[in-house]
Fold J domain-containing protein.
Amino acid sequence: MRFLNLFLALAALVVAVSAWDKLDHEIFDLVSAIEGAEGKGTSFYSWLDVSPSATTSEIAKAYRKKSMVLHPDKNQGVRNAHDRFSRLGVVSKILRDPETRKRYDFFYKNGVPRWRGTGYYYARFRPGLGTVFVFLTIVTSGVQYLIQKLNYKRDLERVEWIVQQAKSAAWGAKMIPGEGQRKVKVNLGGQTRYDADGNVIGSRSVDMVVEGNDVFMVDSDGSLLPVNSSTALEPSVVRTWFLALMGRLYTKVVKRDDTGTSAEDQTSTEDFEGEDGEGSGTDSAPGSSNGTHTPRESKKGPRVATSMAGGKRRKTVRKR
């Protein structure tokens, strides 16, 4: 029963809002302007100093008397004198017309509604381009952050599944932990399929190492990369598109050295400069016996075991 009453009240509100026309909106604006200039609670009648039951002739007489007081010629230098005089004319016009006065009397007795419809507020507080941009930025960044959370949850489930697969392959069906390291192969492609010749198709296996409760993925260079909850990329507001864009601009524009080269570009050229011999890996390092330079040790952070995506870094040659 309570839900039905609430539904009927909302339906009545929707009908009332949809019934407000241009005249109603004009009355709303005029009421707000008069209360703001003349004081809270000031009505059309109290401003003209007439009773709500005043006749049309009484309202006209009160208007002529009030207009002589508020005329801009007699209020030179007074702030908003023209606005007050203009409002007085509109008030007099509304109260002297039976139809418009009847409409005003409805709001005078029942009060001006707080919610006046989306069309009313949009027409009077129309957002600018900046407001729209800020709104869209907040909305799209929020949606992107929500997607990050969903992806993070999915990645955690994926990592947990891979860990269980590795432990099951290392410990057997009874899942009894063994001692030492055990190297196993884990199929990341789900169910293994076979062709007519018995060859495995549609599978994607990786080498993994299980040591106690720790699981590692074997990289191409033989190094062990831990696979656990920290492998999944946690959601971050900083990685939403707008803040990420601002961070990149800050790095490229603000964090520049004295030569005008950004830190990112400088790192790239330092790693790969010297195709003609200057600074290349073929130079003799001090103290080396074979005349070759020892390659710089690569630093690898945690990788997501489920992505397994790789690529070659493009070489950048500094122009002379």
Q: What stands out?
A: The mean pLDDT is 77. The two ends are 83 Å apart (CA to CA). The first strand starts at residue 181 and ends at 187.
